[in-house]
Amino acid sequence: xxxxxxxxxxxxxxxxxxxxxxxxxxxxxxxxxxxxxxxxxxxxxxxxxxxxxxxxxxxxxxxxxxxxxxxxxxxxxxxxxxxxxxxxxxxxxxxxxxxxxxxxxxxxxxxxxxxxxxxxxxxxxxxxxxxxxxxxxxxxxxxxxxxxxxxxxxxxxxxxxxxxxxxxxxxxxxxxxxxxxxxxxxxxxxxxxxxxxxxx
Length: 200
Ligand SMILES: [Mg+2]
Description:
Blueprint (H helix, E strand, L loop, with lengths): L2 H6 L8 E3 L8 H13 L22 H13 L12 H9 L5 E5 L7 H9 L6 E5 L6 H7 L4 E4 L2 H9 L3 E5 L11 E3 L2 H5 L6
Parallel strand pairs: 1-4, 2-3, 4-5, 5-6
The structure holds magnesium ion.
């Protein structure tokens, strides 16, 4: 992020801010790689090989296996742990002291066990998190507008374009799969995101 952009968005009110989960709060790609290795013996994929959001476009893995791993993730059918993105728990806990519950909007079809995962892993009590599962990327903007959210953190570049068009300011959470050129603000870590938030 350059300095002008930083200044423009220096003071985000936590009440106007919400978050995507996978790729922002939850380290979903490490989980994908772990499941592919353990269940399907695939050990040639590294985090930085995931250069596209659509995994079939960047990974040398049978698309059927990709779908099976994604299915395991969505149904919670795995024995390894889903890790948090570094720093997410600390910053969300700090936000929650000012704005509770913290709002999360995911394109997953259901929230499944994400609330208890947040409680156990991020130490964010279930009562302090509200998760909306839209089932589609396109539905995110409406959900956010209904709740007066004006700034949203997401790792999917296409979603950032959708949100911007709907009048919501996207902040792109930098990942190897969103390195195409774009006009949005981006953060490379939760620490960087924290520095943009107005804490009282
Ligand atoms: Mg995501």
